[in-house]
């Protein structure tokens, strides 16, 4: 009696053709390899090959046309895109679903593999790869790991690390990420964009030495609800601009205090400002 088959997408069809070149055990090995961003010998021997008999050796990966060796003294491999994504999608082939369809239920074997990989990378201290695998099987643990690492990097103004953490999660289809994790990811994207916006001010105020006379000015301003203006005046070269840049980059931005900067030294038609002060409104409106 004929039985109905799940729909096969073009990508799954290509992946199925590719897998048909290999034994069932090697097909499963390749699915496991597609679940990783980078495969080295320890993870291959300890996790990926476990429970599979007669599969290819680690060194044989390099012979596959859809696998590339990464730079470095130790052999590390990566499945080329889009083959990796197509092979990863075959985890769902028995159900006819895909990772992009309404948070399709994670196949049990993939969930178990992801848990094992998260634990493996945790013991190695590789928090990026640990986060990558936790994200689809343990939202609570992934949230805690992301928050701890992002906040630590943010406190150190380590923007490349912040970017790497977010990029790690962005490599996962949204349907595989829980709602709270997607929300935190969006919040941290905004946070990183804000830090990046004021990165030049942060770096250029590294040598700035706070004057005793100005160190408490911002705190005094924020402590008085009815006070909204801080007037600073001094001869040129005394550090007024550096004070403002330092306050923005090292106080307002880290403490999530909304701020905008309008430098009236570069207002067009500066000579006419005294007679036509309304021109300043244009610069203010553009910064808001």
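Sequence proposed for the structure above (288 residues):
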């Amino acid at each position: 009696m004929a039985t109905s088959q799940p729909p096969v997408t073009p990508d799954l069809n290509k992946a199925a053709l590719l897998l048909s070149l290999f034994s069932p055990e090697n097909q499963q090995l390749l699915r496991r390899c597609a679940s990783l961003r980078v495969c080295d010998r320890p993870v291959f021997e300890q996790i990926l090959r476990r429970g599979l008999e007669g599969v290819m050796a680690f060194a044989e990966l390099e012979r596959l046309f859809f696998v590339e060796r990464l730079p470095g003294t130790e052999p590390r491999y990566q499945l080329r895109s889009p083959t990796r994504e197509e092979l990863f999608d075959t985890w769902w082939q028995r159900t006819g679903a895909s990772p992009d369809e309404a948070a399709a239920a994670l196949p049990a074997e993939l969930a178990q593999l992801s848990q094992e990989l998260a634990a493996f990378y945790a013991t190695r201290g590789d928090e990026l790869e640990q986060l990558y695998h936790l994200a689809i099987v343990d939202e609570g643990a992934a949230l805690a790991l992301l928050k701890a690492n992002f906040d630590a990097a943010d406190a150190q103004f380590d923007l490349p690390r912040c970017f790497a953490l977010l990029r790690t999660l962005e490599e996962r289809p949204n349907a595989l990420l829980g709602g709270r994790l997607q929300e935190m990811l969006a919040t941290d994207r905004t946070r990183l964009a804000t830090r990046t916006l004021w990165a030049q001010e942060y770096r250029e105020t590294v040598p700035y030495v706070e004057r005793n006379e100005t160190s408490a000015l911002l705190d005094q301003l924020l402590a008085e609800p009815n006070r909204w203006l801080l007037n600073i005046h001094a001869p040129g070269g005394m550090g007024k601009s550096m004070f403002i840049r330092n306050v923005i980059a090292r106080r307002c931005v880290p403490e999530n205090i909304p701020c905008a900067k309008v430098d009236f030294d570069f207002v067009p038609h500066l000579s006419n400002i005294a007679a036509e002060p309304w021109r300043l409104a244009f610069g203010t409106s553009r910064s808001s």
